[in-house]
Specification:
With about 750 residues, this protein is of the alpha/beta class. The protein has 6 domains: about 100 residues, GIY-YIG endonuclease; about 70 residues, no CATH class; about 190 residues, P-loop containing nucleotide triphosphate hydrolases (Rossmann fold, 3-Layer(aba) Sandwich); about 200 residues, Rossmann fold, CATH 3.40.50.300; about 55 residues, no CATH class; about 100 residues, 2-Layer Sandwich (Alpha-Beta Plaits). It has 22 helices and 33 strands. The strands form 7 sheets. A 7-stranded parallel β-sheet has the order 11-12-10-13-14-9-15, with helices on both faces. A 6-stranded parallel β-sheet has the order 16-28-27-18-26-25, with helices on both faces. Strands 2-1-4-3-5 form a 5-stranded antiparallel β-sheet. Helix 3 crosses helix 4 and helix 7 runs parallel beside helix 8.
Length: about 750
């Protein structure tokens, strides 16, 4: 029988492929089960091995082939290779991140007693009987991890030690692997329900400015086949979505097989985009988001793969969808930090979309009223084609913006009573002019939005005896007060603690609640504005998959007068009767120790302002601040992006910050401080000697650290970070790769997380 040697990419933290034998030539992009170490694991075929291992090395055989046809196309394989190199992450783990949840297959090693082993389990007089009964239940089977844990417990109990290889060789134990797969119709068309809309909604007529933009997109993007991405910078309410819809219609009309990807930053925008696009393109739209179950999610993606649907709307992970013929990628609100994945691999969905468009030879369109500094710099350097919509449609003007300089004469904190909880609702530091404006807007029959920076009831609980905030036992961060001051919750590891467990009758054990969040603001406004229908929207209220669409629909139909929430409210929503937007505590964003603070404050102001006056009625925005003369706030008032650019340009050039420099963060973490300290000492020595050896690198790369980050511990793991900054991406990547290789083998439970192009320095 002919044998083939194939390179297999494994989901392990190793930068290499592994060679296996197969009795058939399996196409690249198919998944296979292979023996790997002491268990079976699933890998991805990369193709025939170019260089066979040296003589004498035994090559293992593939156990079985999972996919009849490739699940990863050649384009996705190329995209995965690029991501692996750019984001400095193992290729096998990139493949695993690409796969939809319902397609993931896990191999669980099982340790099972044979008939002989079961006889020993039942034999009370056999020396191994007590050990076996400690390890296995009556079923006589357990996972490898449970086996190892129970063996350790048996040894601690003074029972004889056992070794798995000995038990297997003696015929007492059988080691097998059980493959668990989510049920999917992987090779069959999936029946999706038809839309309730039988006829497509008519397209809206374009303004002269919109038509110019559309003509350029069609001419340069499709007629001439220009590969350069487009950046559409349009003020809020300029009609960017209508340009998207007209462009998609032209793409679909050109070829019945053409497909389109529309990316949105997060789930909060999905219901609105779904409603708009399904009305215009009934029965052609698939939608995916994180609130969907795995099977439903895969059904939507598979409909794209099978060609049943031609438009896919989704968040950053949608960029990996298996399109049959992708011709257009639209990244809406391209500036949004939600496109950046926090966990490894730390990719940016926007940048991956640009690369996928390049590989697919498809048109890429990035849209935003507040473009990221990186994208705008690319446009200024000629890498992107800049298109602009400077005016709102239908002659509507921008909303009137008022900076409200509030007097700080109201308490930010309140002492909890040791004899029965809080006595009254805290008087929040909201300027009376804002409350009055909300009251008047409601009296006119209009709707309002109130945006605060944080969710929860209060920022934290402060102990008067210990003179410090109550912190999470697993993270170096104070816990947020939730549920009307009854619960403390960590927003990093989700640890919870009841406030009643802390408050005692002892006066010296008193606690003070500091600050306020969206939860307390909702209660405050209900008391200040009786008779007003108020609804809170934040990540605590939209956990249910049906909750957010229902709330937004109630607001759209006029059943809610005021929406209160976090920055989630500022993103892309379009409500015709919203005429007042109130933004509180914008100064907190400006005060953050982050070079992006000014850009983010500007984005919040402009995006939030854009929710007002989108219908027939003019809009008004009130922003509470203690810094009315701040240049960022002045730029935000006028939606003057050029003023923001001028302010940030000088500041960032001086320090080499993006977009004029690149950043890479190495984060090392572990549970043992001694191992982490030893690693830091070794890295300090390595960095010092390497920079001394390569003076040109020392001039090109700025290295900060290893240092303790602002939040030292997360989920029980202590952290140390190294920040590398450089204008030359290749030189920076070379130095980072050298550092990574020098400390590839980490002791104990030490881990490395690499963040290329970080969005946060926290």
């Amino acid at each position: 029988m002919q044998q083939y040697h194939l390179d297999i990419s494994m989901p392990v933290p190793l930068d290499q492929a592994f060679t296996y034998r197969a009795s058939e030539l399996i196409p690249s992009g198919c998944r296979v089960t292979v023996p790997f170490g002491a268990q079976q694991t699933i890998g991805v075929v990369l193709g025939p091995t170019q260089k066979l291992p040296e003589a004498g090395i035994r090559i293992k055989s593939i156990v079985n082939r999972i996919d009849e046809r490739p699940i990863y196309s050649e384009t996705l394989i190329s995209l995965a290779r690029w991501m692996s190199a750019y984001y400095m992450h193992p290729l096998g783990e990139i493949f695993r991140a690409m796969l939809p949840a319902a397609r993931k297959t896990s191999v669980v090693p099982k340790v099972t007693l044979t008939e002989s082993g079961k006889m020993i389990w039942k034999d009370a007089d056999h020396p191994l009987g007590p050990v076996f009964r400690k390890i296995w239940t009556k079923t006589g089977s357990c996972s490898l991890s449970v086996f190892e844990k129970n063996v350790k417990k048996a040894a601690e109990a003074g029972l004889p030690g056992v070794a798995l290889p000995d038990l297997v060789s003696e015929g007492l134990v059988l080691k097998v692997s059980r493959t668990t797969r989510a049920r999917t119709n992987k090779d069959k068309a999936v029946e999706l329900g038809a839309s309730d809309v039988m006829e497509a909604a008519p397209a809206q007529s374009l303004t002269p400015e919109q038509k110019v933009v559309l003509d350029i997109l069609v001419e340069e993007g499709f007629t001439q086949g220009q590969a350069k991405p487009f950046l559409l910078h349009g003020v809020t309410g300029a009609g960017k979505t209508e340009v998207y819809l007209h462009l998609i219609a032209k793409v679909l009309a050109e070829n019945p097989a053409n497909q389109v990807l529309v990316m949105v930053p997060e789930i909060a925008l999905t219901p609105q985009m779904t409603r708009i696009f399904t009305a215009r393109f009934p029965n052609l739209v698939s939608v995916v988001h994180s609130a969907m179950g795995p099977s439903e999610r895969w059904a939507q993606v598979n409909a794209i793969h099978q060609g049943q649907r031609r438009i896919l709307i989704g968040p950053r992970s949608a960029v990996f969808a298996p399109f049959a013929q992708l011709k257009l990628l639209i990244v809406d609100e391209e500036h949004d930090s939600s496109y950046k994945q926090a966990s490894s691999p730390t990719y940016n969905g926007r940048d991956v979309a640009v690369m996928r468009g390049h590989l697919e030879k498809a048109v890429v369109l990035l849209g935003s009223a507040t473009p990221s500094m990186e994208s705008y710099a690319n446009a200024m350097q000629g890498k992107y084609r800049l298109l602009e919509l400077p005016n709102r449609v239908h002659g509507r003007g921008l909303p009137q913006v008022e900076l409200v300089q509030a007097e700080l004469d109201k308490a930010f904190a309140q002492k909890l009573s040791p004899h029965g909880r809080m006595l009254r609702l805290m008087e929040l530091p909201v300027d009376p002019r804002i409350i009055e404006a909300l009251r008047e807007n409601h009296a006119r029959g209009m709707q309002s939005m109130v945006i605060v920076n944080r969710r929860g009831f209060a920022y934290f609980l402060f102990s008067l005896r210990e003179r410090k905030a109550v912190t999470c036992p697993h993270c170096s961060i104070s816990m947020t007060v939730h549920k009307n001051s009854t619960l403390l919750r960590c927003h990093y590891c989700d640890f919870k603690q009841k406030v009643d467990d802390l408050v005692t009758p002892e006066e010296r054990d008193a606690y003070v609640m500091v600050g306020y969040g969206s939860e307390q603001m909702e209660l405050y406004l209900r008391e200040a504005l009786p008779g007003t229908r108020i609804q809170r929207i934040d990540s605590d209220t939209v956990g249910d998959r049906e909750g957010l669409p229902a709330m937004l629909n109630d607001f759209r139909e006029g059943h809610i007068d005021i929406l209160v929430g976090t920055q989630m409210l500022a993103k892309g929503h379009d409500f015709a009767r919203v005429t007042l937007i109130c933004i509180l505590e914008v100064d907190q964003i400006l005060n953050l120790p982050d070079f992006r603070a000014g850009e983010r404050a500007f984005q919040l102001m402009v995006q939030a302002s854009g929710r007002a006056g989108r219908g027939e009625h003019s809009g008004c925005v009130m922003i509470q601040t203690q810094k009315p003369d701040h240049p960022i706030l002045q730029a935000g008032m006028q939606q003057d992006y050029q003023a923001l650019w001028r302010d940030q340009d000088a500041f960032r050039r001086q320090h080499g910050y993006p977009p004029f420099g690149r950043m890479i963060i190495f984060e090392y973490s572990g549970t043992r401080k001694d191992l982490l300290d030893d690693l830091v000492r070794s890295m300090n020595t390595w960095i010092r000697e390497t920079l001394k050896q390569y003076p040109q690198i020392q001039q090109a790369v700025q290295v900060l650290g290893p240092a303790v980050p602002p939040i030292e511990m997360i989920q029980g793991r202590m952290r140390r970070t190294i920040l590398m900054i450089g204008a030359d991406r290749k030189v920076l990547a070379w130095f980072a790769q050298q550092l990574r290789s020098a400390f590839a083998e980490l002791k104990g439970d030490l881990r490395l997380r690499i963040d290329v192009d970080p969005q946060s320095l926290m």
